[in-house]
Amino acid sequence: MTALLSIRDLTVTYRHDGREVAALNHVSLDVTAGERFAIIGESGSGKSTLALAIAGLLPGSSKVGGSIEWKLPNLRSPHAFAPPSVLPSLPKLGISPTRGEIGSSVAGTPPAALEFGESGNDSAISPQVGEMSGRTEGGATDRQPASLRDHTPLGGRDIGFVFQDPSASLDPVMAVGEQIAEVAHTHLGLTWSQSYAKAKALLERVRLPDPDAALRAYPHQLSGGQKQRVAIAAAIAAGPKLLIADEATSALDTIVQAEIVALIRQLVAEDGMTLLFVSHDIALAADLAERIAVFQHGELVEFGATAQIVASPRHAYTRALLDAHLGLDAEPLLRQAGALR
Amino acid sequence: MSSPLLAVSGLTKRYRRGGKTIAAVDDVSFHIEAGETLALAGPSGSGKSTVARLLLRLIEPDAGRIEFEGGDFLSLNDTALRARRARLQMVFQDPLAAFNPRASVARVLDDPLRIHSIAARSERPHRIAALLERVGLSADLAGRAIHEISGGQRQRIAIARAIATNPSLIVLDEAVSALDVSVRRQILQLLLDLQREERIAYLFISHDLGVISAIAHRVVILDAGRVAESGNARAVIGAPQSAIGKALVAAAPKLNRTSTQGAADRQ
Amino acid sequence: MSPLRRFLRTPEAVAGAIILVALFAMALTAPLFFPGDPQAIAGPALLPPFQDWSLPLGTDRLGRDVLAALLHGARTSLAVGLAAAAAALAFGAVVGTLAGFAGSLVDEVLMRITDAFQTVPSFLLALAFVSVVGPSLGVVVAAIALGAWTAPARVARAEVLSIRERDFVAGARVIGMHPLEIAFREVLPNALPPVLALSSVIVAAAILTEAALSFLGLGDPNRVTWGGMIAEGRAVLRTAPSLSIIPGVALVLTVLGVYLTGEGVVETAAVRRSLS
């Protein structure tokens, strides 16, 4: 198995009310190419911070230490993913986009770019993270009003990001077809008519009923589950290597949640994407992921194969999370409490 | 047998949208006995929250009857309704949105005591401290602002506010859905303790059958504003009859802690 | 960063605050430096400024001390401006809250009344009101407030319409709170920030309206006002232009100071809200 990225000693601190708060504390882990990987934790565990750090979407006010190193053994063939038409659309993006304030701290970057020669460079000059998933990253800007870190070592089009709230991540005044087509147009260098054809195909892939009508629909005309399908379509439009779903099903009811999880599972398998599934729900994650990393208060407390984590957790916190899960077969609290009747 | 604590019959609420009339709640009937937990389950858009708001008369129904504690709840005038509200309380999903953003914990708990003349002004600080301890919080929390405390603490405050007026029924609208799993379990335990000690009935609204099977006596499953099925919670969840019941059971995340799932499709 | 420090890092806000502090100092110290009647004769008529250091800004047509008048005029300008703006904001916020919270018929009636007031130019309204009731400080304040309360009312109503749908308002109803208490204790305080953001514009406009009324001779005749001084100086505009220019500059600086400070406060509050 080859690693897609390896994270070493990653530490992220935010400034809050003048105090420094550590969101992630010396985290090291590897994500294998093509695997389904889950990050589990409760609020304040740092799980979303890790997802944002991997995507290069941390707010500018955060301080980052350690490294995120990308290993790209089989980069896509240049003709498909780096057509000349992409280049003019890149606004004043330096060849060394990592020279921001975390430049020195992301130690792995320059070697990675050099090592992979042209292909590595290709990723270094790809569009800013701000364009990563076209309009869908509106959610990112909503969440991080401060300037976005536009220097992930990997090009934005190589990571698809699905946020928790699809209403916040879709542009309310742009037809969803255009939002998806824009990603294809920007990152794949397709003409607009090709991009729209691609958008329609994507809407079919995410199984939106009546894709022709959906192309012209605005986000407010869709249900929460349908909006999340659109957000997923936009996230995978540029054919990313890594799909990050940050609590992507938490705002949905259980039936829609199960549908979206099934959809993500299918898309990841069909496209050979690596999946990073961030969730507070260990049962949901266990159902989907092959490996699970459990976070608590910014620390990685346990990390292993799903079967091992679920069947024989080593850490007390993992056990507590598993015990707290209320499944249909769980012992009823009612009887434990000895309630009336 | 005496009449139930709450009896709802033929409850209907329609909305007009784009010239069409849509029934958000359509001829819904159920009852709740004193000290019992009835769960209201269903997917989003099934009308669960509308039922909650109708019961509390935050919105008025188009048709139907609500009998609460033996009286016609819908015919109460404004003054009588305000007094009656002491007995029928509600806890909201988002504990931050449910409180005035400027309020302190003390003020939030002082309001019901003052409005329903439950305690004299000088006595209220003691009552507030007692309420905080009742829901497992330190009395020192009274001086804090609502926005300073954690989500779990806020939901405990919401429960403290709800029990301040000594209600016989509390409507819990997705009251644990926004909480972390470990906190959720503590809050459920608190609700069960209160029920056992004070004989409070709950209408527990949730889309999560796992939580429902853990704490509810009976369940009513709604689909598109209508009752799809109802009955003993364990029995319905164990063998659902309606299509929506089956879909909800199938969709609930399951954690099989003995098998080696996930590995099966690892190749 | 504390709000105060953020405020102090905005140059225009600091400039505005300096002007306002100077103005308040003038207004507060006027009775100390010039304890007598500012309308009493203090020297020869039409003495130009910077000639006699006991009368630094000279005298007017009747030999009254211009500096004394300027300082006492600051009291009137500030008092009328602040009182009128406070009255307009308070009245507007209450009307807007009632309209937005009660809805239906109450909303309809109150908003049509607001429309009616908004269609009449506020200066004409003030002019008519003072002409009918007669000039005195209280009447001038009421006249100015009469034309200024509609904007706060509209802003408050719009804010209340969104706030009243929030869960905490439903929560207040559930515990049996009286609708009037909900409107004024729960909803109104949360609707205030955008209403208060209007205050700098309203204070500035009120000061200008007061000056214009005084200029037309409709101010309180027992008080020195900058508008009145400009009107007085108009008769000798060619021979003694300073008599009009000095209160005119004072007026411009005051309005500028109020406006810049207000903008600074709004900016500081906006930053704080986006941070939280």
Keywords for this entry:
heterotrimer; A: alpha/beta; three-stranded antiparallel beta sheet; 9 strands; globular; B: alpha/beta; Rossmann fold; six-stranded mixed beta sheet; four-stranded antiparallel beta sheet
- Largest sheet geometry of chain C: none
What is the percent of helical residues of chain A? 25-40%
Strand order of the largest sheet of chain A: 5-6-7-3-8-9
Query: Into which percentage range does the β-strand content of chain C fall?
Result: under 5%
Kindly state the mean pLDDT of chain A as a whole number? 76
Distance, first to last CA of chain A: 56 Å
Mind telling me which CATH architecture of chain C this is? Orthogonal Bundle
Count of discrete structural domains of chain C? 1
Spans of at least 5 consecutive residues with low confidence of chain C: none
Greatest chain-chain contact: A-B, 46 and 50 residues
Q: What's the count of strands of chain A? A: 9
CATH class of chain C: Mainly Alpha
N-end to C-end Cα span of chain C = 12 Å
Pfam families (chain B): ABC_tran
Membrane topology (chain B): Peripheral membrane protein
Subcellular location (chain B): Cell inner membrane; Membrane
Subunit structure (chain B): The complex is composed of two ATP-binding proteins (GsiA), two transmembrane proteins (GsiC and GsiD) and a solute-binding protein (GsiB).
3D architecture notes:
The complex is a heterotrimer of chains A (341), B (267) and C (276). Chain A has 341 residues and is of the alpha/beta class. Chain A has one domain: P-loop containing nucleotide triphosphate hydrolases (Rossmann fold, 3-Layer(aba) Sandwich), CATH 3.40.50.300. Helix content of chain A is 38%, strand content 20%. Chain A has helices at 47-55, 78-81, 109-115, 117-124, 138-143, 166-169, 176-188, 192-205, 211-216, 224-236, 254-271, 282-288, 306-311, 316-324, 333-337; strands spanning 3-16, 19-32, 36-40, 63-70, 159-162, 242-246, 274-279, 291-296, 299-305. In chain A, the strands form two sheets. A six-stranded mixed beta sheet of chain A has the order 5-6-7-3-8-9, with helices on both faces. Chain A has a three-stranded antiparallel beta sheet with strand order 2-1-4, with helices on one face. The radius of gyration of chain A is 20 Å and the shape is globular. Chain A starts with a strand and ends with a helix. In chain B, α3 (105-115) crosses α4 (124-134) and α5 (151-163) packs parallel to α6 (181-198). In chain B, the strands form two sheets. Chain B has a six-stranded mixed beta sheet with strand order 6-7-8-3-9-10, with helices on both faces. A four-stranded antiparallel beta sheet of chain B has the order 2-1-4-5. By secondary structure, chain B is of the alpha/beta class. In chain C, 44% of the residues are buried. Chain C is built from twelve helices and no strands. Chain C is elongated and about 75 Å long. In chain C, α3 (66-102) packs parallel to α7 (150-163), α3 packs across α9 and α10 packs parallel to α11 (226-234). Chain C has one domain: MetI-like fold (Orthogonal Bundle). Chains in contact: A-B, B-C. At the A-B interface, α11, α12, α13, α14 and α15 of A face α6, α7 and α9 of B. Chain A: Belongs to the ABC transporter superfamily. Chain A: Residues 7-322 form the ABC transporter domain.
